[in-house]
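Supplementary Note 2. Why include the ligand at all?

Several targets in our set were suspected to adopt different conformations when bound, so apo predictions alone were not considered sufficient. For every target with a known small-molecule partner we therefore ran a joint prediction. The input for PBG is given below.
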Amino acid sequence: MKQYPTEQAGFPAQRPRRLRRDAATRRLVRESAISVDDLIQPVFVIDGEDRSEAVPSMPGVERLTIDRLQHEAAHLAELGVPAMAIFPVTPAEAKSDDAAEAWNPQGLAQRAVRAIKASTPDIAVITDVALDPFTRHGQDGLLDESGYVANDITLEALVRQARSHAEAGADIVAPSDMMDGRVGAIRAALEADSHPETRILAYAAKYASAFYGPFRDAVGSAGNLGSGDKRTYQMDPGNSAEALREVAMDLAEGADMVMIKPGMPYLDIIRRVRDAFEVPTFAYQVSGEYAMLNAAFDNGWLDRRACVMEALLGFKRAGADAILTYFAREVAGWLAET
Ligand code: PBG
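The joint prediction is reproduced in token form.
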């Protein structure tokens, strides 16, 4: 790094505070900022009509029926939010060992995609490709006789699921399952199905994190998973170089964008991936991060707006191009005010 003289004739040659002394100068030299273009709103969808349900561990987040989701999509588009990510809450009776509901053309996710694309075509719709909302055991894949999540039979199911999402009109499919080879299998199927333009956002470096707890409550998979965990396929939180290998594989298999998840505890991974590959790199501020911040806000311990903006700025500074965050709608509203 270049060295600057720090002292001359009794005064400091460099006074970094000169650039901090007023708002105008601070704005001129600021390196990173949050724009509405960076935001993706995750949403939970339930069956029924004109109904919503609170998610207790995620204050302010509601599961919505498709008609209400259409209003939400219109509202987000009006605020300028470019994309939303859809997560269906599957009724217990639709869950099975083979996860067949995942590729039902009349499934909740597929119907939600069609409804949103019909009413608000300009908002990009991202779908989650993974089997956990549809399996009785709550794992992201199918089990073999020994109870192990079996990679290659799961790939066939994921391909069927991704094809049904593309067929329904999803702009972006996002495999979040962490099976080996799933991006390549999905890419090949989309090309064969004449969906060459469907984008793949690969959850390339997804860690076996304890911060997903509230999400599993929200989609109702926590009870199914029980004391099980996802450590045989999601990444070990101690690893960093392995994330680069995962990203390299997903890109080689045809991913257009990659994601790091969770967010705040993995800012170093975002930076490493962004520097190493120079491809669109997204961060997911997950449910547990949202819950943690809200707990502090609700106790009056932290300032909501300032802390949310600072946390999101951290993702941008680390190199994220876009951020999935449950705060997206609220942040878009704040940005519209200023
Ligand atoms: C499903 C999936 C999960 C999340 C997104 N997709 C949960 C999991 O892997 O157990 C978590 C998102 C969040 O915590 O906000 N594969």
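The radius of gyration is 21 Å. The longest strand covers residues 39-46. Comparable summaries for the other entries are listed in the accompanying table.
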